[in-house]
Automatic annotation (TrEMBL):
Belongs to the 5'-nucleotidase family. The lineage of its organism: Bacteria, Bacillati, Bacillota, Bacilli, Bacillales. SUPFAM superfamilies: 5'-nucleotidase (syn. UDP-sugar hydrolase), C-terminal domain (SSF55816), Metallo-dependent phosphatases (SSF56300). Pfam families: 5_nucleotid_C, Metallophos. It comes from Virgibacillus siamensis. GO terms for molecular function: hydrolase activity. This is Bifunctional UDP-sugar hydrolase/5'-nucleotidase.
Length: 464
């Protein structure tokens, strides 16, 4: 006798709720169909469902996202870095207190006295036909951030080595819920033969029909739930093994919305507006925001960053601010709208030569006009870099581009052998946007504050 086992999943919604009611409508219909067939099926989220870029996630600190997962009938989840490192310790510790689904994340550990009650390293379940299934969740180990919030992430491979042998003895099928990214998922498939299925996320990769490495099926469904995923495992009870693995993703952007979910999102939006609607300050005059020009607002914000981090130099890109500030009361909702990014302040240490290279690179057209998506940035373009603590002399050459001619610190040239403490957005510590910053061996991140918290202080101090 053969039995089909179905897993439906989402990953990396990032609080982009445009398609959420379609997800709910589609999954509910699929679940009803599978149950009517007598098949086992479960709904799973692979993390980064929460993203404080959205007012609902910001106002409710992620708990509204948990409510939405409850209402949709989810069975299991793991956490992503947006759940893990964009809120204070207590907020994550209690994020899932009201969850009606189970959460597994084997490599997350509290550095305080108590682990969260919701946390399970592994989860064991059975299909309708008695197939024993073991699940283990893992999330990206960004310890430079997590440990500032009193969490510690154990290495994924070490964690798997600690649990896989026991799961193999206890279960027939092992499923990894992975918020590690495609490269890590592929390497895990090469190293751990006993893992039958990896449901992935984090790097927003879309595997339309999955990928198989060493008999491990790897899946993922992109981002923002434009696609949702399904995996079907066929178990042969006579052979006592999986005889077939199938994966596919479904484009749901054209599908009907679940009306009850739409009403819930509307109600949550109204409540979020009210919760974020308290005035932060009052402006007598509007404040202009320009992405490719120096403005008083961006200069004062960069000055605030320098003072707050006690840095020698600070630098911020003007594209962080997405809109103008009108005259009148400024609410936290306005600040969130204008600076929605889950970006933290940070400092790095650079020698004088490295700092000059960073400043030169920041004036290039390639960087200022870069349409960045990711690394916490939720805007349109990087924009002009604004500096505090250094004087930068530039010239416009015949090609129309601006070039750096001279950089001075306290009226003198930067000392190539001196180490400078440079404050900036943590965006630039990732990837290759500004390599000298990314490669700095001395980084300090400031959590749980976002840059918009410094923006609020700047408005109160300099513009009230």
């Amino acid at each position: 006798m053969q039995e089909q086992i179905h897993f439906y999943y989402t990953n990396d919604l990032h609080s982009n709720f445009e398609n959420w009611s379609r997800v709910v409508g589609y999954f509910k219909a699929e679940k009803e169909r599978r149950i009517s067939e007598g098949s086992s099926c479960w709904m799973i989220d692979i993390g980064d469902h929460v993203d404080r870029v959205h007012p609902i996630a910001e106002a409710f600190m992620g708990k509204a996202n948990v409510q939405l997962l409850n209402d949709a009938g989810y069975d299991f989840a793991t956490i992503g870095n947006n759940e893990g490192i964009t809120m204070a310790h207590d907020d994550l510790h209690h994020l899932y207190d009201d969850a009606e689904f189970r959460i597994t994340c084997a490599n997350l550990h509290s550095m305080t006295d108590h682990e969260p009650e919701w946390q399970e390293p592994t989860i064991n379940i059975q299909s309708a036909g008695g197939v024993k299934i073991g699940m283990i969740g893992l999330t990206a180990p960004f310890n430079a951030f997590y440990e500032l919030l009193d969490w510690h992430m154990s290495p994924p491979y070490q964690t798997l080595e600690a649990y896989i042998s026991a799961l193999k003895k206890e279960t027939d099928v092992i499923v990894l819920l992975s918020h590690l990214g495609i490269t890590e998922d592929q390497e895990i498939a090469r190293r751990f033969d006993d893992i039958d299925l990896i449901i992935g996320g984090h790097t927003h990769h879309l595997l339309r029909t999955g990928e198989t490495i060493n008999n491990t099926l790897i899946t993922a469904a992109g981002k923002h739930c434009a696609f949702v995923g399904e995996v079907t495992l066929t178990w042969d009870h006579t052979a006592e093994s999986i005889v077939k693995k199938e994966a596919h993703t479904t484009d749901i952007t054209h599908m009907a919305k679940d009306l009850r979910t739409e009403q819930t999102l509307y109600d949550l939006s109204i409540r979020a507006d009210d919760m974020l609607g308290h005035p932060v300050t009052h402006l007598e005059q509007p404040i202009e925001v320009k992405w490719f020009q120096q403005t008083e607002m961006m200069q004062k914000l960069t000055d605030t960053l320098k003072a707050w981090t006690e840095a020698d130099v600070a630098m911020l890109n003007a594209g962080l601010l997405l809109d103008q500030f009108p005259a009148g009361d400024v609410t936290y909702k306005d600040i969130h709208h204008i600076c929605p990014h889950p970006i933290n302040p940070c400092t790095v240490e650079l020698d004088g030569d490295e700092l000059v290279e960073v400043i030169r690179a920041s004036y290039t057209k390639e960087l200022t006009e870069l349409k960045l998506k990711g690394f916490g940035f939720r805007g349109e373009v990087i924009g002009k870099m604004i500096f505090s603590g250094v004087e930068v002399d530039t010239v416009i050459r015949e090609d129309g581009h601006e070039y750096v001619e001279w950089v001075s610190f306290n009226g003198r040239p930067l000392d190539p052998d001196k180490t400078y403490k440079v404050a900036t957005a943590d965006t630039f510590t990732f990837g290759r946007l500004l390599p000298e910053i990314a490669k700095s061996e001395s980084k300090q991140f400031y959590l749980p504050e976002f840059l918009r918290d410094l923006l609020a202080d700047t408005l109160r101090t300099h513009f009230s």
